[in-house]
Design brief:
- With about 260 residues, this protein is α/β, with parallel strands linked by helices.
- The chain has eleven helices and five strands.
- It has a five-stranded parallel beta sheet with strand order 2-1-3-4-5.
- The longest helix has 13 residues.
- It is globular, with a radius of gyration of 20 Å.
- The chain starts with 7 loop residues before the first strand and ends with a helix.
- About 40% of the residues are buried.
- The model has no long low-confidence stretch (mean pLDDT about 95).
- The structure holds iron/sulfur cluster (SF4) (2 copies).
- The site of one iron/sulfur cluster has 13 residues, from helix 7 and helix 8.
Amino acid sequence: MAAKRKPKLAVWKFASCDGCQLSLLDLEDELLEVAGAVDIAYFLEASRATRKGPYDLSLVEGSVTTPHDAQRIRDVRRQSRYLVTIGACATSGGIQALRNFKDVKEFAARVYAHPEYIDTLATSTPIADHVKVDFELQGCPINKHQLLEVITAFLAGRRPGISSESVCMECKRAGNVCVLVAHGTPCLGPVTHAGCGALCPSYDRGCYGCYGPKETPNTSSMSGRLSRLGMASRDVQRVYRTFNTNAKAFRSESKRHGS
Ligand code: SF4
Ligand code: SF4
C-alpha cells in the first residue's frame, strides 16, 4: 500500500521583519512534530531546498508594498489550497503602512541618495486586499501556540479555535489588577485582539495594541477614556498609529484625531 502523502506547507515573506516566521522556528519542542506531520516544501528562512507547488497550506508573512509583491501574491494564491496570513504586516499592512497617511515619494527623497531607483507603491496593504485569504492570524509578532493551532486546524480540516475577544479577557484570567482602572495608565486592552496572554499588563504596563483590533472594538469609547486621562488629541491619534495603523478600526479612529 502506498504511503499517505503528507500535506505540503509553504511559508512566504513579503514586506516584513521576519519575526512571525521566526515564531514557527521558535516552536522548538513542537517543530519536529510539525515537520513529521507536514512536508515543509518551501520555507527560505529555514532551508535553501525548495519544492514546487501546489501547496496544501501557505503561510504568508508581510504586506504588499511593491508592484512585484502585488504580482507575486497572486502567484502564491494560485498555488495554494489554503492561504493563511500571519502577523500585523500581512493582516493590516504593518507599521510600514504609516506611509499611507503621507507622500511616500517625499520619504524616498529624504532617505535615499537616488530615489529614482526605488520602485514602490504609495501604500502598504494587507494580503487580503489583493487575494482571497482563508484565515488571518493577528499579532506583532504572532503567538507561536496560536500558529500551531492554525496549522493543526487546517490539517484537520476545521476552523482554527482562535478567539477574537479582547486583551482585557486574558488580563482578567491572569488575575491582573487593571492598570487602566487602578493606576490610570493608558491601556488599549479593551479594543485589542487577544493572543498575547495580556503580556504588558502582567508587568504593570498598558497595552499598546500590537495584536490589532479585536472584533467590533469600541474605539470611540476607548479614545474618550484616554482623553479623560489627560492625553492630547495628537497623542490619542498616535496610540492607534503603530503596528496595526492600517487596520480599519484603528485607521478610522486615528483619523478622528487629526489627518
Ligand atoms: S490592564 Fe488593560 S488589558 Fe488589563 S483589564 Fe485593564 S484595560 Fe484591560
Ligand atoms: S502591546 Fe498589548 S497585545 Fe501587544 S503584547 Fe502587550 S498586551 Fe499584548
